[in-house]
Structures are given as structure tokens and as C-alpha cells.
Amino acid sequence: MSKYTVSIDISEAPEMTQLQADIQNMFNEFYPRLAEDLHTDGFEFPNHVSITVKKNLDYPGAADNDKIVFNGDWFTKNPEDMGCIIHEMTHIVQHYPTYDFWWIVEGIADYMRYEYGFQPDRSKPKAGGKYDDGYATSANFLHFVTDSHGKELIKTLNTALRNGTCSEEIFEQVTGKDVKTLWEEYQASFNS
Ligand SMILES: [Zn+2]
Q: pTM of the full predicted structure?
């Protein structure tokens, strides 16, 4: 049995039993994968996650420490966005002490959801933006870099964020190229 457990409270949206089951299944499949893919020796993060499904929130979901709130209406209207569940679960596993380098924090959260096959068409790679825009832009950039330089970059950034030693220089330490050069290469890839 997995050491990871979840409780899913739908008392504010009692008809959403299908969403409850979907969240349970995604937790069972992907939380252990996140734990492994984002492993740092000696670093602890919550083994138990408390999820609450609400209605009429003005955002799809949010994570805080060991808790996630999801907007049930969001998934009814946007069934292609189930990867949002992976995004928020990633934040629980990240368990970073601060929100510094937020673009990397949000970039990794979307990176993991795309890595596991949950990338909506609207989030597919496209030219433009800045590397530190966060979310889809940063996630697609991270995928471009790991495609040619390996996934060690994600592990190294993740561990540095947990230890409070993150900096953009990690890109150069891991790949031999600084983040701006890598971004220029990414942008150039849309012209080839
Ligand atoms: Zn996020």
C-alpha cells in the first residue's frame, strides 16, 4: 500500500461524485510519481493531502501546505483541464519554503502536468513571451531545455528551491549555457 493518502471533501458540492473519483484516481497514480520524480534526499513533504471541492471560486484551484481547494465548476466547464489536479499536487510535493523564483515554481508545476500527458492545446509551445513568465511559457521552455540537456535540470532546480539555494545560474551549471542563451535558442527553434 502506498504511504500517500488523500481525503476529498465534496460536502459543498455533493453531486460531484465523479470529480471526487477522478481526483482520487489521479492522486493514486500521480502523487507517488511526483514524489519520485521530485525526490530530494532527506526532504520531507506531506504524505497526506486534504482536498476540498468547492463551487463558484474565481480560480480553478489552489494549494497551501498540505491542502488543495478545487473549483468543481471549473472542471465541469473545462473537462480538458484535468491536468490542473497534477499542477496543484505538484505544489504540495514541492513544499518550497518560499515563493521566490515563482516563475520556476509555476514552471515546474506545469512542466510536470505536461510531462504526464495533460497539456491542453491552448498551452502548446508557441513563440514569444519571456522565459520568466511562469506557467505554460516557462514549462514549455523547461521542456525544450530538458529535451536536449536531460531532466537533471528539473531535479537540480527543485532541490535548490527546497534548500533555499536557487538561482538562475543553475541553468548554466547544468547545461553549460546561461538561461538567456537557452531562451534565444528556444525562440529560434520556432523558425526552423
Ligand atoms: Zn501553481
A: 0.97
